[in-house]
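Hey team,

Sharing the Cytochrome P450 run so nobody has to redo it. Sequence (437 residues) first:
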Amino acid sequence: MQIWFGEVPVVVVSTVEGAQEILKNQDLNFAERHVNSTIAVISFDATDMFFSPYNERWRQLRKLSMQELLTTARVRSFQAIREQEVARLMRDLAVSADAGAAVNLSSSVGNLINDIVMLCSVGSRCRYREEFLEALETAKQQLTWITVADLFPSSKLARMVGNAPRTALASRQRMERIIEQIIQERKDDMDSGGDVDAAGKESFVNVLLRLQKEGGTPISITNETIVGLLFDIFSGGSETSSTTLIWMMVELIRWPRVMAKAQAEVREALKGKSTITEDDTVGLSYIDMVIKETLRLHSPVPLLTHSCRETCKVMGYDVLKGTSVFVNVSAICRDPRYWEDAEEFKPERFETNNIDFKGSNFEFIPFGSGRRICPGMNLGLANMKIVLASLLYHFDWKLPDEMAPKDLDVREAPGIVASKLTSLHICPVTRVAPTIA
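Structure output:
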C-alpha cells in the first residue's frame, strides 16, 4: 500500500512476500533507515548505528557491535548480573505477596531490565541512573514526533516555524552530558587499574574505551562514537524486553491453560531450588514457545522502518528513491494464511516447526531481517527468559479486586515500541519462596 505523508511517499508492506522482497531479495536497496528531522537530532545526526545510513562507517559499527559488544560469549558473561538482579526482584515481590498487596509489574519489570542493561553497559550501579532514564524516556517519545517540515521538506517556512528539532537537541545534549560523565569516570577507573567490573567482566563502556586506547580499529572510536552506541544499547535493549515480558504475563493471565502448563514445566524442572540460575532454564522448551508466541502476537517494534536508496520495482510496482518503507510486522505475524487461529495465544504452534528468530522465516520477524536485523537479539532473549521463568516458578498470579482475565486491558500505547497502554497491576502469591539475602 502506498500513501503520501505530505510530500513524502510512504509504502506499507503487510505481506510475507513483500517483506521477503524488501528484507532479502532487495535488502541492499532498502538498507537505509527512515530519518526525519527530529530523529536526525536525537540520533546524533544519524551517526549512531541504528539510524546511520548504509555506508562503510555503518558496516564497521555493526561489525564492532557484533564482534565485541553483543557476542554470545559477552552476553553469557553477564549471566551473574542477570541472576543477581532477578533474585533481587523476586525478594521484593515476595514481600508484597506476604502483605497481600498488588504490584505494578510494569514498573517493577521495567526497572529490572533498565538495571540489567545499565550494569552490563557501565559495570556498576550508576549514580546518574534516574536522570539518564528520564532523559532517555523523553528522547524516545520525541522519536515519534512528526513535524510540518517532515511532511513538506521542500518548504523553508515549515523548517523555520517548527521548534521540535530544538527541543530534541536539548534532550540529546542532556543525554550526551550524562554519558560523557560516565565515560570520564570509567576512564579514570581504568587508569587506576580497574579495567573490569565487580564481577570481573568487561562492561560495554570498558570494551569501547579499551579499543579506543589500543587503536587499530577500522573506524576511529571517539567519545561521540561511544555515546551513540550506548544510546542504541540503552534505548533498544531495555524497553523492548520489558514490554515483551509484560505482554507475556498478560497473555498467560488471559489463557490460564497456558499459564498452568508453563508453571508446571518450570516447577518440575527446578523442583527444590530456592533460586534460579540461567543454567536451570536451558531445557525449558515450553517457556521458549511462550516467548515466541508472545513475540508473534506482540512484536515489540510493530513497524520496521526502511528507506529506498534507488528507484526500483517491488512486486511489479515502482518505488521511488527516498520512499519511506514500513514493514508491518504486526500484520504479518497475525496473517491467517500462515498462522492457524492467528489471534489466539497458542505456544504449541511452535512445537513442530523450525521457525526461529534469525529472520529467514518471513512470517515471523519480530527482530527484523537482513542487514538491519536487531543486533541485540541474544541479549534481549537472555534477559527475558530468566525473568519469565522466575516469575512463574516463585509465584502464582491473580488479578486484583476479583477482576476477570477477560477484562484485562490489552490496548497498545502509541509509539515506536508497542507497550501496554496501562500498567499491569497484579497480585503475587508465593509458591516457592525465594532465597532471602
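Strands lie at 2-5, 8-13, 103-104, 303-307, 312-314, 317-319, 324-328, 395-398, 425-430.

Ping me if you want the raw files.
A.
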